[in-house]
Amino acid sequence: MKFLIAEDELTSRLLLQNMLNRYGKCCLAANGLDAVKAVREALDAGEPYDLICLDIEMPQMDGLDVCRALRQE
What we know:
This protein is an alpha/beta fold. 45% of the residues lie in helices and 19% in strands. Helix 1 links the parallel strand 1 and strand 2.
């Protein structure tokens, strides 16, 4: 399985990564723009994420905006 963790707080990001590592590969994004970019790159490569964990309040683009942007694609 492949996971994307989009979280601006380092401690929370590492905690989620530690919890999910045993189930598959974790990719990290520190803000919403990086999350959208990571999802697009994964889709273009034919390797979509199985789970995306989005923080609601992130810099540059919040989790709700990320979700809206990804649903439009």
